[in-house]
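Usage example:
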Amino acid sequence: MVTYLRGVDLVFKALADQTRRDLLDALFTEDGQTLSALEGRVPMTRFGVMKHLKVLEEAGLVVTRKRGREKLHFLNPVPIRLIHDRWVSKYAEPWAAALTDLKAQLEES
Amino acid sequence: MVTYLRGVDLVFKALADQTRRDLLDALFTEDGQTLSALEGRVPMTRFGVMKHLKVLEEAGLVVTRKRGREKLHFLNPVPIRLIHDRWVSKYAEPWAAALTDLKAQLEES
DNA sequence: TTGACATGTGACCAAATGGTCACCTATCTT
DNA sequence: AAGATAGGTGACCATTTGGTCACATGTCAA
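Running the assembly step on the lines above writes:
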């Protein structure tokens, strides 16, 4: 439980940076990229990218595998899914429900 | 469009802090609370709470109304809904789809 | 109208964050 | 074996962030 709470915090903090969201986007369009490949997608040196990838990895949003001297990065959507299910949906769904109610009321008249 | 992008960033950054998520939770359970009331829900002085509420308000997650000398704070779920629709669902849904596929394959055999 | 109450402002500080660099190790290629 | 290639570490720095406080303004109640 504590683990889950800490996890939520790590995920939200990881998502709070535009560069890190861009990296996730890059992995979304093409999974399994190396550090060098990702470096080209973001206006920053290799070292900055490494730090961001480390944050993403510690949040569980990215998992890696080594292939020779390369390190491949893969998107892991599970944490985002958890955030969605246990947090976002709580706030997002009542709004959808309100719209549904409104629609129903409009259709009555 | 630029406005939307800046907005996404503000919302993600606002959600990246545990105290601010706690404040949203407090407003979720009871909407329209004053600063003084919210101060009691979080281990921090009034000034810290004010700063956090300002961040939430600038992200559009909280809207306010003055009543005499009091300031009432209301939860606005729309930004979270937008984050969900335009960002989270992109990552969360493929996973659900994969599960659905798996379920279908299992049911075939 | 005076005092208590609710909120606001700006300065200030410590810690966290985002980014770079010099240098290092490991792996591939020829 | 030697150079080139891919990645890793730790120090370092500027900026942002989270939090407090002294002080100030606006509003209510007796």
